[in-house]
Give the backbone structure.
Amino acid sequence: MRSLSVAGLLSLALAAPSARAQEAWTAPPAGGANPYARLLLMPDISAIASFAAAWNDHDVEALSPRVGPYAPADKPAFLFEELELGLQAVIDPYARASVFIAFAPGEVAVEEAFLTTTSLPAGLQVKAGRMYSPWGRVNGQHPHAWDFVDAPLARGRVLAEEVLAGPGVDLAWLAPLPWFAELHLAAQDTAPTEADAERLTGLVRLAQFFALSEETTLGVGLSAARRDEGAGQFRDLGGADLYLRWRPPTGRSAVTLQGELFTRRFRGVPDAGAADWGAYGQAVWRVGPAGALGLRYDQAPTAGETAPGTERRLSGLATWYLSEFQRLRLQVSHERRPADQAGFAALVHLEFGIGAHGAHPF
């Protein structure tokens, strides 16, 4: 995958999906963002940092636990979220390597470290190492590629607490069709929550993109996985995602609609109950090169000390792209939980990046 500048990363959603996906597969193995680094055998190095100011009128950790910036109840707080260090380089004519290390308060973790082949025939590509699982849209993206500040509730409550990921192998096949169609077969050791041990998980994903017109692109995807829970028990995961983008060939404005459905069912587990599910839908209007407005609705099973049921959240977003290298976002959310419980949260989020940062999966 050809390396791009951080500017390209922050405006990743601007590019036409099918065109970018095709580019990823046809990029020359020796490509790179920094030719001088190539001469010195240096990898492309980048850093992306994010900070937030948060306020919420309820105890998020107890009533609506999730990964993402939040403050103690009724106490505004400044939060350093994460610094992502990226190292990427071509290894040889046959493969390239990508390493992403996350520095967060009190924690350093290897988010991803994997090798990607670049010269297999018949549209095949293999990734091996530790990586995000090929699943849906949000799960495969690093947080700085999201439109909204935090992930939808359903991803954390149904799919994986933070991200479905782990060491393993992902075989991808780009089908020779008039439209973009990519099939993934993956095997990874995953741990969806902190309480889970890493166990073997088999995944399959089909992603397709169609150019409906010069301005409009439609993407549809299906994902499924089975995780071995041990003792003859399994966790079955299912998902569907939809993406629709309208962007005139001239100008930077665009409208994007995106949604995902997550399902989970435990098999062989006594008293497992019915399947859980959650979903979200969002619309983002990119207003020229400097701004964006968005609205997201999501719902998921309740968690924490909240009574069993469904939690619903409506979020509004305003983004100001100060340049191609930094953006400032305001996100406000209103939540509804069983027993007429409600909550309000506000986030001001700053993100900036330096260095050459390769594009993540779209």
About this structure: The radius of gyration is 20 Å.
